[in-house]
Amino acid sequence: MADQSTPSDVITPADTASENSRAGLSRRTLLGTAGATGLVLGAAGGAMGYAAAPAQATPLTSVGAGRTMFHGKHQPGITEGLQARGHLAAFDLAAGAGRKEAAALLRRWSQTAERLMAGEPAPHDDTDVARDAGPSSLTITFGFGHSFFGRTGLDKQRPAALDPLPDFSSDRLDKARSDGDLWVQIGADDALVAFHALRAIQKDAGAAARVRWQMNGFNRAPGATAHPTTARNLMGQIDGTRNPKPTDSDFDKRIFVPASGSTDPGWMANGSYVVVRRIRMLLDDWEKLSSEAQEDVIGRRKSDGAPLSGGTETTEMDLEKADAQGNFAVPVNAHARITRPDQNGGAAMLRRPFSYHDGFDPDGTPDAGLLFVCWQADPLRGFVPVQRKLDRGDALSQFIRHEASGLFAVPGGAARGGYVGQQLLEG
């Protein structure tokens, strides 16, 4: 995504040090290591567990020490920068489970998320997978699917914005890997920290819910480039140049449900709607194109993301620029032209995707692409109009296939001592 700045609610190593002086060092800060100079615990140290650590532990690296707060106006995992590792999962409530069981589950999940995002062990039966790691900017986000409300007797609280998405011509959807009662997004800058969170969430579900589907994704690791850059996808193309930024004057209006004056139910105040799509990239076909042909499909230079009309990555695209033969510099069916907000009635969405690779088909075709995750205050004004227009003539369509889909209502952040979705489930 275009905005790679550090959000204000991410705690830096310096902030962590001051917090530790007030609340006591977290077990991961105490046990943290930094590369080859890291601390090695012997048998005695290992037996001491979480309760003790050497007096002078080596500090965590900057990647491991990054921390995002669980409590806040909005849930974490929406406005933060792209994370190196991600897991998306949907759960269905078990037969017989209803509102009471769902409330207990969301309370457990919220307690677990709060502890793990602080770099602490899970509250129940921690697996020790991330024992010697820091928070690594872990975020855990929860949402509700269309079917959740019927199963919990909360049909009257279902937002109209959760109505099923329309069918699109590029859809080849696997229903078993789409939708779900509950949705969880996990992101971190360390793969073990992310897996640890996924396992804890899955164990916490217990008898109340079962996994419906789960997907794994990745992005470039922090520090892999000399300076922050917009991410590239598996097609090698810079992806996310025109992402809305929190500094935009209308950012909150486009991305979050307002606290008042909205037609959404009150429990969605400060929340957002997320569309999740597993988009397979037909890389064998794509990679047969020349770089110039690929650029025409996208409408931007592959090297630096600049529009084909000229300039740099952030230069406004000139849709009217043409050559001597009258051909537009940015082709009329180029992906970047079609997706521009000013070409879609101002429709905008905050894209926060992960790439994925799930091996190869028997014929050697890679099962790889994009776990497309986009946020908006109203999917009928964000995702839907853009996707409809893409459906009618996007040059990229012949090189991708939408294989799974989900739409979820993501309520605002939990208050301290509370849990995500509490107003819905206890209101």
Automatic annotation (TrEMBL):
EC assignment: 1.11.1.-
UniProt cofactor note: Binds 1 heme b (iron(II)-protoporphyrin IX) group non-covalently per subunit.
Known catalytic reactions: heme b + 2 H(+) = protoporphyrin IX + Fe(2+)
Subcellular compartments: Cell envelope
Keywords: Heme, Iron, Lyase, Metal-binding, Oxidoreductase, Peroxidase, Signal
Keyword Heme among UniProt keywords: yes
GO CC annotation: cell envelope; cytosol
Domain Dyp-type peroxidase C-terminal intervals: 230-414
Top enzyme category: oxidoreductase
GO-annotated biological processes: iron import into cell
Keyword Transmembrane recorded: no
UniProt domain Dyp-type peroxidase N-terminal: residue ranges: 75-219
Region (Disordered): 1-23
Cofactor(s) listed in the protein's UniProt record: heme b
GO MF term set: ferrochelatase activity; heme binding; metal ion binding; peroxidase activity
Superkingdom of the source species: Bacteria
NCBIfam families: Dyp_perox_fam, tat_substr_1
Entry similarity comment: Belongs to the DyP-type peroxidase family.
Function summary: Involved in the recovery of exogenous heme iron. Extracts iron from heme while preserving the protoporphyrin ring intact.
PANTHER family in UniProt: DEFERROCHELATASE (PTHR30521:SF4), DEFERROCHELATASE/PEROXIDASE (PTHR30521)
Protein name (Swiss-Prot/TrEMBL): Deferrochelatase
Species for this entry: Streptomyces brasiliensis
Phylogenetic placement of the source organism: Bacteria, Bacillati, Actinomycetota, Actinomycetes, Kitasatosporales
